[in-house]
Write a structure and sequence with these properties.
228 residues, 85% helix, disordered C terminus, mainly alpha, MetI-like fold
């Protein structure tokens, strides 16, 4: 659950800030946010978590997860989620900034602009679509990153999740549970890769056409070898 929340916050906020930075490329906004996000993304999660724990009493937020109270439980989750989001926000921000700036300078975008599309249509039909396609390959990397981050954060802030599950399995020597856990994650990663490739080809007709031509060419060569 915490991994999904971190991913959603990172995906939305990182892309939002990255697109704005691309529109304001090399201006004060772009420079400030690029430095700030890169700096926060480069700080190790462990150091941020220790700083959050030591300053919890000063700022008045819970240092550990509270399950008995809903409002306090939400606040106790908010700080760990924000801390965990910094590296993935930096990834999406960097990708969105670079890709959007490339699109804004492309002939395809200029043609669409002269064709009469307004700013909202250009954003939805040109920028967001192409940006989403380019970021599909990042989902696998982000999943691996979040997998390690959430285990660390759940352990430090006593959040019930996969860290408790893994620690229980190792303490009790439950080999079957450990094997099931890692096998499940392996299958999930395989499905994510398959789904990513399917979406990339579905959303990018040019790539789908190229794949078809390559496959057709291979079949033609195979027939030539058989007849030869």
């Amino acid at each position: 659950m915490i991994s999904i929340l971190i991913f959603l916050i990172s995906f939305i906020l990182g892309n939002f800030l990255g697109i704005i930075s691309a529109y304001k490329l090399n201006k004060s906004y772009d420079i400030i946010f690029s430095i700030l996000i890169s700096f926060l993304g480069a700080i190790p999660i462990l150091i941020l978590a220790i700083l959050a724990l030591t300053n919890a009493e000063i700022f008045g937020y819970p240092s550990q997860f509270i399950e008995t109270n809903r409002s306090l439980g939400f606040i106790s989750l908010l700080v760990p989620i924000l801390i965990s989001s910094f590296p993935t926000i930096a990834i999406f921000f960097s990708k969105a900034r670079k890709k959007t700036s490339e699109i804004l300078q492309s002939n395809y975008y200029l043609f669409a602009k002269t064709y009469g599309l307004n700013k909202k249509q250009l954003l939805n039909k040109i920028i967001l679509k192409n940006l989403f396609i380019s970021e599909l390959n990042l989902f696998f990397l982000v999943y691996i990153l979040l997998f390690t981050i959430t285990i660390l954060i759940e352990t430090i802030f006593s959040i019930p999740g996969q860290s408790l599950f893994i620690s229980f399995a190792f303490k009790k020597g439950e080999i079957d549970i450990i094997m099931f856990y890692f096998s499940f994650n392996f299958v999930l990663l395989t499905l994510i890769l398959f789904f990513n490739n399917f979406l990339i080809k579905k959303l990018n007709p040019e790539l789908q056409k190229n794949s078809y031509l390559i496959l057709k060419n291979k079949k033609f060569k195979f027939k030539e070898v058989q007849h030869g």
